[in-house]
Structure to design on (464 residues):
């Protein structure tokens, strides 16, 4: 260990760099291997965060390729330990108030069922109570690690991360001007993009064998046409590749995400057709997530065309699956609840419960709240069930999500018996927080407990 530390110190000194502690607002980089066969190596970024802006911190927030709830909280030490560490950089935002706004928005995105995408295009998550036009479903965010960092910095007034000619995690990392002790080269990768016309010609001519040789990074750049302005012949080729059994599943994931972010009216039908034809569980899961993304992003438009009924039938059929994959159940429940009325949901509670039993705790809390807000009767079932999950988990991050949801939607809870259950839960949580009896990492838990306390205090005043 001493030899390793000495080697790092000599390397930093030889570059004329004096490493400083990672501070809130820094970007951190490292290597990351996507856990899918044959998709290659891709870099990975995280943001150092915490309330003490520009001061040393051990807390991080990042987008990871987990399906359902992809924004993950961690520690600097944990981030460094997973693969070759690049170092940290900063300097895009120098005003503490603007940086606080940026990092606060990163936290808010973690509440809205964030989805990981391997493309360079993204969707901003939006809570149902934030929607301009109601009723409106929760809109799940969709980011890659570098586009998440770019979005967050843009909120704070620094959009430069998204202005790279070639959008890659490494190039986004190098956009930050201040080097706090990097252990890698400082030149951007492939900073000369392919001409648009040339790109179209090459994509149309590429065979499946050619594409399967590409890493995830290479394919994302090669096939990454803007979903809002993709030429019809490119769209046709993308659909044919999604249907091609020879193309690697990880590469299909990129194409599915690109098509589901479009506004082309026949997109849901083609996603559903692709779902029916594929035998890959992974591809079925990504297609289900794509159908969900499409209706969330085009909610008002689908009300006036037949897509609403087509998508509704898809999720009703999906709910009937006897042995659903674990990753797909959260999408099925969200889609069914969003598109069906209170009576239809109530008549299918046994099927909904079967799917919810497969869902991890983080997405489960959000899904239960979608049911809580559906009707007063469903509140009587799902609000106590949520509290039971939270009591067992003793996880401040989950508490923070639950109290944020309820504090912002408390007007829907009118039953005095339910309000009393919530008040008693808040009192119990205040006791456990005072004793700091959290499960999980102390740094992460104390950060979330601080946010939960704020919402708990406001909620208690509203429930009196």
């Amino acid at each position: 260990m001493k030899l390793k530390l000495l080697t790092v110190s000599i390397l930093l000194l030889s570059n004329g760099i004096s490493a400083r502690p990672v501070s809130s607002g820094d970007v951190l980089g490292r290597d990351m291997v996507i856990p899918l066969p044959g998709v290659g190596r891709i870099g990975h970024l995280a943001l150092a965060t915490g309330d003490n802006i520009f001061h040393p911190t051990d807390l991080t927030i990042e987008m990871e390729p987990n399906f359902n709830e992809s924004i993950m909280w961690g520690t600097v030490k944990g981030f460094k330990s997973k693969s070759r560490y690049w170092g940290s950089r900063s300097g895009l935002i120098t005003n503490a108030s603007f940086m606080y706004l940026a990092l606060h928005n990163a936290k808010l995105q973690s509440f809205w069922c964030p989805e990981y995408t391997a493309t360079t295009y993204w969707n901003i998550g939006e809570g149902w109570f934030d929607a301009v036009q109601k009723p409106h479903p929760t809109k799940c965010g969709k980011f890659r690690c570098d586009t998440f960092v770019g979005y967050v910095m843009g909120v704070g007034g620094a959009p430069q991360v998204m202005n790279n000619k070639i959008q890659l995690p490494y190039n986004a990392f190098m956009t930050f001007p201040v080097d706090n002790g990097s252990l890698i080269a400082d030149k951007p990768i492939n900073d000369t993009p392919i001409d648009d016309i040339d790109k179209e010609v090459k994509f149309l001519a590429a065979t499946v064998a050619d594409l399967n040789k590409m890493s995830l990074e290479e394919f994302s750049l090669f096939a990454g046409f803007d979903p809002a302005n993709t030429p019809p012949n490119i769209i046709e080729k993308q659909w044919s590749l999604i249907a091609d059994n020879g193309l690697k599943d990880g590469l299909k994931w990129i194409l599915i995400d690109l098509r589901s972010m479009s506004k082309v009216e026949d997109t849901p039908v083609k996603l559903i057709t692709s779902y029916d034809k594929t035998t890959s569980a992974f591809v079925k899961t990504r297609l289900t997530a794509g159908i969900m993304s499409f209706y969330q992003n085009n909610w008002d438009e689908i009300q006036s065309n037949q897509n609403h009924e087509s998508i509704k039938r898809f999720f009703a059929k999906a709910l009937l699956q006897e042995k659903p994959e674990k990753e797909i159940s959260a999408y099925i429940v969200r889609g069914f609840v969003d598109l069906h009325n209170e009576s239809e949901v109530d008549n299918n509670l046994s099927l909904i419960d079967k799917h919810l039993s497969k869902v991890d705790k983080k997405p489960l809390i959000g899904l239960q709240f979608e049911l809580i807000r559906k009707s007063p009767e469903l509140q009587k079932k799902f609000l106590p069930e949520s509290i039971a999950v939270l009591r067992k988990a003793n996880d401040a991050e989950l508490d923070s999500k639950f109290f944020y949801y309820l504090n912002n939607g408390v007007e829907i809870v009118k039953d005095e018996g339910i309000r009393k259950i919530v008040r008693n839960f808040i009192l119990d949580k205040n006791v456990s927080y005072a004793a700091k009896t959290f499960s999980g990492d102390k740094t992460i838990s104390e950060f979330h407990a601080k946010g939960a306390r704020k919402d708990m205090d406001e909620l208690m005043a509203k429930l009196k």
Q: What stands out?
A: The CA atoms of residues 31 and 43 lie 5 Å apart. The longest helix spans residues 442-463. The chain has a mean pLDDT of 88.
